[in-house]
Q: What sequence folds into this?
Protein backbone atom coordinates (compact mmCIF):
# COMPACT_ATOMS: atom_id res chain seq x y z
CA UNK A 1 0.00 0.00 0.00
CA UNK A 2 1.38 3.40 -0.96
CA UNK A 3 0.10 6.55 0.70
CA UNK A 4 0.76 10.05 -0.54
CA UNK A 5 1.25 12.93 1.87
CA UNK A 6 1.72 16.65 1.39
CA UNK A 7 4.99 18.18 2.57
CA UNK A 8 4.66 21.97 2.27
CA UNK A 9 3.61 22.72 5.85
CA UNK A 10 5.06 25.39 8.15
CA UNK A 11 6.98 23.75 11.01
CA UNK A 12 5.67 26.35 13.47
CA UNK A 13 2.05 25.42 12.71
CA UNK A 14 0.61 23.04 15.33
CA UNK A 15 -1.67 21.62 12.63
CA UNK A 16 1.51 20.09 11.22
CA UNK A 17 0.97 17.19 13.61
CA UNK A 18 -2.68 16.63 12.80
CA UNK A 19 -1.84 14.33 9.92
CA UNK A 20 -3.46 11.03 9.07
CA UNK A 21 -1.75 7.91 10.32
CA UNK A 22 -1.50 4.46 8.81
CA UNK A 23 -3.24 1.88 10.96
CA UNK A 24 -1.83 -1.47 11.92
CA UNK A 25 -4.42 -3.89 10.62
CA UNK A 26 -3.17 -7.23 11.94
CA UNK A 27 -0.27 -6.79 14.31
CA UNK A 28 3.26 -5.46 14.42
CA UNK A 29 4.70 -7.67 11.67
CA UNK A 30 3.03 -6.01 8.71
CA UNK A 31 5.20 -4.46 6.02
CA UNK A 32 4.07 -0.90 5.34
CA UNK A 33 4.94 1.27 2.37
CA UNK A 34 4.48 5.02 2.36
CA UNK A 35 5.90 7.85 0.26
CA UNK A 36 5.65 11.63 0.37
CA UNK A 37 6.63 11.99 -3.31
CA UNK A 38 5.17 9.81 -6.03
CA UNK A 39 7.33 7.09 -7.55
CA UNK A 40 9.93 7.21 -4.77
CA UNK A 41 9.65 3.62 -3.51
CA UNK A 42 11.64 1.18 -5.63
CA UNK A 43 9.82 -1.80 -7.10
CA UNK A 44 11.22 -5.29 -6.76
CA UNK A 45 14.36 -4.36 -4.80
CA UNK A 46 15.36 -2.28 -1.79
CA UNK A 47 18.61 -0.57 -2.84
CA UNK A 48 18.64 0.10 -6.59
CA UNK A 49 21.78 1.50 -8.14
CA UNK A 50 20.11 4.89 -8.41
CA UNK A 51 17.27 5.74 -6.05
CA UNK A 52 14.49 7.98 -7.40
CA UNK A 53 14.84 11.75 -6.94
CA UNK A 54 18.55 11.39 -6.12
CA UNK A 55 17.82 9.92 -2.68
CA UNK A 56 19.92 7.51 -0.59
CA UNK A 57 18.69 4.08 0.57
CA UNK A 58 19.34 3.18 4.22
CA UNK A 59 18.14 0.20 6.25
CA UNK A 60 17.28 0.53 9.95
CA UNK A 61 17.20 -2.84 11.73
CA UNK A 62 15.65 -3.20 15.18
CA UNK A 63 16.34 -6.92 15.52
CA UNK A 64 19.08 -9.31 14.49
CA UNK A 65 19.18 -9.96 10.75
CA UNK A 66 18.54 -13.66 11.39
CA UNK A 67 15.62 -13.24 13.80
CA UNK A 68 12.60 -15.38 12.85
CA UNK A 69 10.41 -13.78 10.22
CA UNK A 70 7.54 -13.20 12.67
CA UNK A 71 9.87 -11.37 15.07
CA UNK A 72 12.08 -9.56 12.55
CA UNK A 73 11.71 -5.79 12.50
CA UNK A 74 13.41 -3.56 9.96
CA UNK A 75 12.58 -0.71 7.62
CA UNK A 76 14.13 0.72 4.47
CA UNK A 77 14.19 4.51 4.33
CA UNK A 78 14.87 6.65 1.25
CA UNK A 79 16.30 9.94 2.39
CA UNK A 80 17.91 13.15 1.19
CA UNK A 81 21.20 12.44 3.04
CA UNK A 82 22.44 9.27 4.78
CA UNK A 83 22.23 9.25 8.55
CA UNK A 84 26.03 9.26 8.74
CA UNK A 85 26.27 12.89 7.58
CA UNK A 86 27.05 14.76 10.82
CA UNK A 87 30.07 15.96 12.78
CA UNK A 88 31.79 13.67 15.35
CA UNK A 89 29.84 13.17 18.58
CA UNK A 90 31.16 14.89 21.70
CA UNK A 91 30.04 14.37 25.32
CA UNK A 92 26.90 16.21 26.40
CA UNK A 93 25.87 16.73 30.01
CA UNK A 94 22.54 17.84 31.41
CA UNK A 95 20.66 17.51 34.70
CA UNK A 96 19.98 13.78 34.42
CA UNK A 97 22.73 12.33 32.24
CA UNK A 98 25.05 11.49 35.15
CA UNK A 99 22.40 10.29 37.60
CA UNK A 100 23.11 6.91 39.23
CA UNK A 101 20.94 4.14 40.64
CA UNK A 102 21.23 3.27 44.33
CA UNK A 103 23.93 0.71 45.11
CA UNK A 104 21.96 -0.45 48.18
CA UNK A 105 18.24 0.26 47.76
CA UNK A 106 15.83 0.14 50.69
CA UNK A 107 12.87 -2.28 50.74
CA UNK A 108 10.35 0.42 51.68
CA UNK A 109 7.43 1.37 49.44
CA UNK A 110 8.04 4.76 47.84
CA UNK A 111 5.71 7.39 46.42
CA UNK A 112 6.33 10.79 44.84
CA UNK A 113 4.35 13.92 44.03
CA UNK A 114 4.23 15.17 40.44
CA UNK A 115 7.19 17.03 38.96
CA UNK A 116 6.70 20.82 39.07
CA UNK A 117 6.83 22.89 35.90
CA UNK A 118 10.45 24.11 35.53
CA UNK A 119 11.18 27.75 36.26
CA UNK A 120 13.79 27.89 33.47
CA UNK A 121 13.20 27.02 29.80
CA UNK A 122 13.54 23.22 29.58
CA UNK A 123 12.85 21.09 26.52
CA UNK A 124 11.68 17.49 26.41
CA UNK A 125 15.14 15.86 26.47
CA UNK A 126 16.61 18.06 29.19
CA UNK A 127 13.51 17.58 31.37
CA UNK A 128 13.94 13.85 32.03
CA UNK A 129 14.50 12.72 35.62
CA UNK A 130 15.68 9.16 36.31
CA UNK A 131 13.53 7.43 38.96
CA UNK A 132 14.39 3.73 38.72
CA UNK A 133 15.92 1.02 36.58
CA UNK A 134 17.53 -2.39 36.30
CA UNK A 135 19.73 -4.32 33.89
CA UNK A 136 22.00 -2.46 31.51
CA UNK A 137 22.15 -1.40 27.86
CA UNK A 138 25.27 -3.56 27.43
CA UNK A 139 23.33 -6.72 28.29
CA UNK A 140 20.30 -5.68 26.20
CA UNK A 141 18.01 -6.54 29.12
CA UNK A 142 16.26 -4.36 31.67
CA UNK A 143 14.91 -0.83 31.67
CA UNK A 144 15.16 2.71 33.00
CA UNK A 145 12.14 4.72 34.13
CA UNK A 146 12.00 8.51 33.86
CA UNK A 147 9.51 11.28 34.54
CA UNK A 148 9.56 14.42 32.39
CA UNK A 149 8.15 17.93 32.66
CA UNK A 150 9.04 20.35 29.86
CA UNK A 151 8.00 23.91 29.07
CA UNK A 152 9.87 24.48 25.77
CA UNK A 153 9.93 22.81 22.36
CA UNK A 154 13.14 21.23 21.08
CA UNK A 155 13.50 23.64 18.15
CA UNK A 156 16.48 22.55 16.03
CA UNK A 157 17.54 19.81 18.45
CA UNK A 158 16.90 16.15 17.64
CA UNK A 159 17.47 13.01 19.70
CA UNK A 160 17.94 9.29 19.25
CA UNK A 161 18.38 6.55 21.82
CA UNK A 162 20.96 3.89 21.00
CA UNK A 163 20.27 2.02 24.26
CA UNK A 164 16.62 1.08 23.88
CA UNK A 165 13.16 1.88 22.63
CA UNK A 166 11.14 4.53 24.47
CA UNK A 167 7.57 4.01 25.71
CA UNK A 168 6.24 7.52 26.44
CA UNK A 169 3.03 8.06 28.46
CA UNK A 170 1.93 11.74 28.48
CA UNK A 171 0.10 12.84 31.61
CA UNK A 172 -0.42 16.53 30.85
CA UNK A 173 0.12 18.46 27.62
CA UNK A 174 0.13 17.26 24.02
CA UNK A 175 3.32 16.32 22.20
CA UNK A 176 3.97 16.94 18.50
CA UNK A 177 6.64 14.43 17.51
CA UNK A 178 8.60 14.75 14.28
CA UNK A 179 10.31 11.46 13.44
CA UNK A 180 12.27 10.08 10.52
CA UNK A 181 9.16 8.10 9.59
CA UNK A 182 6.66 10.96 9.79
CA UNK A 183 4.56 12.95 12.25
CA UNK A 184 2.70 11.95 15.39
CA UNK A 185 0.50 13.98 17.72
CA UNK A 186 0.16 12.35 21.14
CA UNK A 187 -2.09 13.51 23.96
CA UNK A 188 -2.75 12.38 27.53
CA UNK A 189 -4.48 8.98 27.66
CA UNK A 190 -2.49 7.97 24.58
CA UNK A 191 0.97 6.38 24.55
CA UNK A 192 3.72 6.30 21.93
CA UNK A 193 6.70 4.03 21.30
CA UNK A 194 9.82 5.45 19.62
CA UNK A 195 12.09 2.66 18.31
CA UNK A 196 15.73 2.34 19.31
CA UNK A 197 17.82 4.51 16.98
CA UNK A 198 14.94 6.54 15.56
CA UNK A 199 15.71 10.28 15.40
CA UNK A 200 12.95 12.56 16.63
CA UNK A 201 12.06 16.03 17.85
CA UNK A 202 9.32 17.07 20.30
CA UNK A 203 7.25 20.23 19.91
CA UNK A 204 5.02 21.17 22.83
CA UNK A 205 1.46 21.75 21.63
CA UNK A 206 0.48 23.22 25.02
CA UNK A 207 2.27 25.51 27.50
CA UNK A 208 3.98 22.57 29.20
CA UNK A 209 4.01 18.79 29.09
CA UNK A 210 4.46 16.19 31.82
CA UNK A 211 4.56 12.40 31.74
CA UNK A 212 6.43 9.13 32.08
CA UNK A 213 9.01 7.22 30.04
CA UNK A 214 10.08 3.57 30.13
CA UNK A 215 13.35 2.92 28.29
CA UNK A 216 13.38 -0.73 27.24
CA UNK A 217 16.83 -2.28 26.74
CA UNK A 218 15.52 -5.76 25.92
CA UNK A 219 13.32 -7.49 23.36
CA UNK A 220 11.04 -5.12 21.47
CA UNK A 221 7.64 -4.44 22.97
CA UNK A 222 4.84 -6.43 21.38
CA UNK A 223 1.22 -7.34 21.87
CA UNK A 224 0.70 -10.31 24.18
CA UNK A 225 -0.86 -13.56 23.04
CA UNK A 226 -4.48 -13.78 24.13
CA UNK A 227 -4.62 -17.47 25.00
CA UNK A 228 -8.01 -18.53 26.38
CA UNK A 229 -9.35 -14.97 25.92
CA UNK A 230 -9.54 -15.76 22.21
CA UNK A 231 -9.21 -13.48 19.22
CA UNK A 232 -10.70 -10.34 20.78
CA UNK A 233 -9.92 -8.33 23.89
CA UNK A 234 -7.28 -6.15 25.53
CA UNK A 235 -5.44 -3.90 23.05
CA UNK A 236 -6.55 -4.55 19.46
CA UNK A 237 -3.85 -4.37 16.80
CA UNK A 238 -6.12 -2.33 14.51
CA UNK A 239 -6.02 0.56 17.01
CA UNK A 240 -2.25 1.07 16.79
CA UNK A 241 -1.12 3.81 14.40
CA UNK A 242 2.16 4.58 12.73
CA UNK A 243 2.99 7.69 10.67
CA UNK A 244 2.95 8.13 6.92
CA UNK A 245 6.02 9.52 5.19
CA UNK A 246 6.74 13.22 5.67
CA UNK A 247 10.05 14.98 5.30
CA UNK A 248 11.97 18.16 6.05
CA UNK A 249 14.24 19.54 3.32
CA UNK A 250 15.85 22.28 5.38
CA UNK A 251 19.47 23.32 5.81
CA UNK A 252 20.82 25.23 8.79
CA UNK A 253 22.27 24.81 12.27
CA UNK A 254 20.88 21.61 13.79
CA UNK A 255 21.98 19.48 16.74
CA UNK A 256 21.70 15.71 17.17
CA UNK A 257 21.83 14.31 20.72
CA UNK A 258 22.45 10.59 21.17
CA UNK A 259 22.16 8.30 24.19
CA UNK A 260 24.68 5.48 23.98
CA UNK A 261 25.72 3.11 26.78
CA UNK A 262 24.15 5.32 29.41
CA UNK A 263 25.88 8.57 28.37
CA UNK A 264 24.72 11.50 26.26
CA UNK A 265 26.55 12.76 23.18
CA UNK A 266 25.99 15.65 20.79
CA UNK A 267 26.87 16.30 17.14
CA UNK A 268 26.16 19.18 14.77
CA UNK A 269 24.22 18.82 11.55
CA UNK A 270 23.91 21.16 8.60
CA UNK A 271 20.40 19.93 7.82
CA UNK A 272 17.19 18.72 9.46
CA UNK A 273 17.57 14.95 10.03
CA UNK A 274 13.92 14.00 9.40
CA UNK A 275 14.55 13.91 5.66
CA UNK A 276 13.05 10.50 4.79
CA UNK A 277 10.93 10.91 1.66
CA UNK A 278 9.62 7.34 1.66
CA UNK A 279 9.92 4.17 3.71
CA UNK A 280 8.69 0.60 3.85
CA UNK A 281 9.00 -2.03 6.55
CA UNK A 282 7.74 -2.82 10.04
CA UNK A 283 10.18 -0.90 12.28
CA UNK A 284 8.64 2.50 12.98
CA UNK A 285 7.14 4.64 15.76
CA UNK A 286 3.59 3.85 16.76
CA UNK A 287 0.97 5.21 19.11
CA UNK A 288 -2.09 3.82 20.86
CA UNK A 289 -5.15 5.43 22.44
CA UNK A 290 -5.55 3.70 25.82
CA UNK A 291 -9.23 4.67 25.90
CA UNK A 292 -9.75 1.96 23.27
CA UNK A 293 -8.49 -0.82 25.54
CA UNK A 294 -11.03 -3.66 25.83
CA UNK A 295 -10.90 -4.45 29.54
CA UNK A 296 -11.45 -8.07 30.58
CA UNK A 297 -12.54 -8.93 34.13
CA UNK A 298 -14.23 -11.47 36.34
CA UNK A 299 -18.01 -11.78 36.17
CA UNK A 300 -18.34 -14.14 39.13
CA UNK A 301 -15.93 -13.74 42.06
CA UNK A 302 -12.35 -12.77 42.98
CA UNK A 303 -10.25 -9.88 41.76
CA UNK A 304 -8.37 -10.78 38.52
CA UNK A 305 -4.60 -10.69 38.23
CA UNK A 306 -3.24 -7.48 36.64
CA UNK A 307 -2.00 -9.51 33.66
CA UNK A 308 -5.55 -9.14 32.35
CA UNK A 309 -4.79 -5.45 31.83
CA UNK A 310 -1.65 -6.01 29.74
CA UNK A 311 -1.20 -3.71 26.72
CA UNK A 312 2.39 -4.47 25.62
CA UNK A 313 5.23 -6.62 26.92
CA UNK A 314 8.92 -7.22 26.36
CA UNK A 315 9.45 -11.00 26.60
CA UNK A 316 12.50 -12.46 28.31
CA UNK A 317 14.25 -15.77 27.64
CA UNK A 318 12.10 -17.38 30.34
CA UNK A 319 8.76 -18.47 28.81
CA UNK A 320 5.85 -16.57 30.33
CA UNK A 321 8.11 -14.22 32.33
CA UNK A 322 8.54 -10.77 30.82
CA UNK A 323 11.33 -8.24 31.21
CA UNK A 324 8.69 -5.49 31.10
CA UNK A 325 4.91 -5.45 31.25
CA UNK A 326 2.97 -2.29 30.41
CA UNK A 327 -0.35 -2.60 32.23
CA UNK A 328 -3.16 -0.04 32.41
CA UNK A 329 -6.17 0.37 34.70
CA UNK A 330 -8.83 2.27 32.74
CA UNK A 331 -12.53 2.85 33.54
CA UNK A 332 -14.33 -0.49 33.92
CA UNK A 333 -17.23 -2.29 35.55
CA UNK A 334 -16.71 -4.20 38.80
CA UNK A 335 -19.30 -6.95 39.16
CA UNK A 336 -17.64 -9.68 41.25
CA UNK A 337 -19.89 -10.81 44.10
CA UNK A 338 -18.79 -11.68 47.66
CA UNK A 339 -15.38 -10.31 46.68
CA UNK A 340 -12.98 -7.64 47.83
CA UNK A 341 -13.05 -5.72 44.55
CA UNK A 342 -9.96 -3.44 44.71
CA UNK A 343 -6.46 -4.94 44.35
CA UNK A 344 -5.84 -7.11 47.39
CA UNK A 345 -2.83 -6.91 49.71
CA UNK A 346 0.03 -8.60 47.93
CA UNK A 347 3.77 -8.97 47.48
CA UNK A 348 5.15 -10.11 44.17
CA UNK A 349 8.29 -11.54 42.71
CA UNK A 350 7.78 -8.77 40.14
CA UNK A 351 8.51 -5.11 40.86
CA UNK A 352 5.92 -2.42 40.15
CA UNK A 353 6.39 1.22 39.15
CA UNK A 354 3.02 2.96 38.89
CA UNK A 355 1.89 6.26 37.46
CA UNK A 356 -1.45 8.04 37.34
CA UNK A 357 -2.48 9.83 34.14
CA UNK A 358 -5.96 10.91 35.12
CA UNK A 359 -8.41 10.88 38.00
CA UNK A 360 -8.05 8.67 41.08
CA UNK A 361 -6.66 5.15 41.39
CA UNK A 362 -9.27 2.82 42.89
CA UNK A 363 -6.88 1.33 45.48
CA UNK A 364 -5.84 4.65 47.01
CA UNK A 365 -8.18 7.30 48.42
CA UNK A 366 -5.57 10.06 48.37
CA UNK A 367 -1.88 10.87 48.02
CA UNK A 368 -1.41 9.14 44.67
CA UNK A 369 -1.84 12.14 42.38
CA UNK A 370 -1.89 12.55 38.58
CA UNK A 371 1.71 12.98 37.47
CA UNK A 372 2.96 11.28 40.63
CA UNK A 373 4.50 7.82 40.91
CA UNK A 374 5.02 4.90 43.27
CA UNK A 375 7.50 2.04 43.51
CA UNK A 376 6.77 -1.29 45.18
CA UNK A 377 9.75 -3.54 44.71
CA UNK A 378 10.13 -7.30 44.72
CA UNK A 379 8.37 -8.83 47.76
CA UNK A 380 7.53 -5.41 49.25
CA UNK A 381 4.03 -5.82 50.72
CA UNK A 382 1.45 -3.26 49.58
CA UNK A 383 -2.21 -2.86 48.73
CA UNK A 384 -5.21 -0.61 49.37
CA UNK A 385 -4.98 2.10 51.99
CA UNK A 386 -7.07 1.97 55.17
CA UNK A 387 -9.95 4.07 53.83
CA UNK A 388 -10.24 2.02 50.63
CA UNK A 389 -10.11 -1.24 52.60
CA UNK A 390 -12.89 -0.15 54.94
CA UNK A 391 -15.13 1.05 52.13
CA UNK A 392 -14.60 -2.04 49.93
CA UNK A 393 -15.08 -4.42 52.84
CA UNK A 394 -18.56 -3.01 53.44
CA UNK A 395 -19.60 -2.53 49.82
CA UNK A 396 -22.83 -4.09 48.57
CA UNK A 397 -21.33 -6.53 46.05
CA UNK A 398 -24.74 -7.67 44.88
CA UNK A 399 -24.74 -4.47 42.81
CA UNK A 400 -22.31 -3.67 39.98
CA UNK A 401 -20.15 -0.58 40.25
CA UNK A 402 -18.39 1.33 37.50
CA UNK A 403 -14.93 2.76 38.08
CA UNK A 404 -14.96 6.03 36.16
CA UNK A 405 -12.76 9.05 35.55
CA UNK A 406 -9.45 7.22 35.97
CA UNK A 407 -6.40 5.95 34.10
CA UNK A 408 -3.50 4.47 36.02
CA UNK A 409 -0.70 2.33 34.61
CA UNK A 410 2.17 0.13 35.72
CA UNK A 411 5.64 -0.63 34.40
CA UNK A 412 6.19 -4.10 35.86
CA UNK A 413 9.54 -5.89 35.66
CA UNK A 414 10.80 -9.35 36.58
CA UNK A 415 13.96 -7.90 38.18
CA UNK A 416 14.08 -5.53 41.17
CA UNK A 417 13.97 -1.85 40.27
CA UNK A 418 16.80 0.16 41.77
CA UNK A 419 15.63 3.70 42.56
CA UNK A 420 17.90 6.54 41.56
CA UNK A 421 19.77 8.49 44.20
CA UNK A 422 17.90 11.60 43.10
CA UNK A 423 14.49 9.93 43.49
CA UNK A 424 15.32 8.56 46.95
CA UNK A 425 16.42 11.96 48.22
CA UNK A 426 13.88 14.06 46.30
CA UNK A 427 11.74 16.61 48.13
CA UNK A 428 8.87 15.19 46.02
CA UNK A 429 9.16 11.84 47.81
CA UNK A 430 6.33 11.38 50.31
CA UNK A 431 8.09 10.47 53.54
CA UNK A 432 4.74 9.70 55.18
CA UNK A 433 3.58 7.21 52.52
CA UNK A 434 3.69 4.35 55.03
CA UNK A 435 0.97 6.05 57.09
CA UNK A 436 -1.73 5.11 54.56
CA UNK A 437 -1.64 1.55 55.99
CA UNK A 438 -1.32 2.40 59.68
CA UNK A 439 -5.08 2.74 60.09
CA UNK A 440 -5.55 -0.94 59.25
CA UNK A 441 -6.49 -2.11 62.72
CA UNK A 442 -6.88 -5.57 64.19
CA UNK A 443 -10.31 -7.21 63.64
CA UNK A 444 -9.45 -10.74 64.69
CA UNK A 445 -11.22 -12.36 67.61
CA UNK A 446 -10.34 -15.83 68.86
CA UNK A 447 -13.97 -16.53 69.66
CA UNK A 448 -15.08 -16.73 66.04
CA UNK A 449 -15.96 -14.69 62.98
CA UNK A 450 -16.12 -10.90 63.32
A:
Amino acid sequence: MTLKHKTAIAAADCSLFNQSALRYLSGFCNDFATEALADTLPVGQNSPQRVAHGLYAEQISGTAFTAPREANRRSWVYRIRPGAVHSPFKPYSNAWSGEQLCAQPEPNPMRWDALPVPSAATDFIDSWRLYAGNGAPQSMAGCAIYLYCANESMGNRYFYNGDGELLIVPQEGRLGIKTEFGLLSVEPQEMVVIPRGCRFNVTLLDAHARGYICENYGALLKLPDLGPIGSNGLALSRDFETPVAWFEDTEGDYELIAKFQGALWRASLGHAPCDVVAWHGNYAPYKYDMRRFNTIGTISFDHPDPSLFLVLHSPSYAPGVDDIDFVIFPPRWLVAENTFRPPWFHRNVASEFMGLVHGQYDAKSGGFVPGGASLHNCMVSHGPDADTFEKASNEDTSQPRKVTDTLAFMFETRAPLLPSNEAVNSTLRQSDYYLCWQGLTRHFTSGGTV
Observations:
- The chain has a mean pLDDT of 92.
- The helical segments are 386-393, 421-425.
- The longest helix spans residues 386-393.
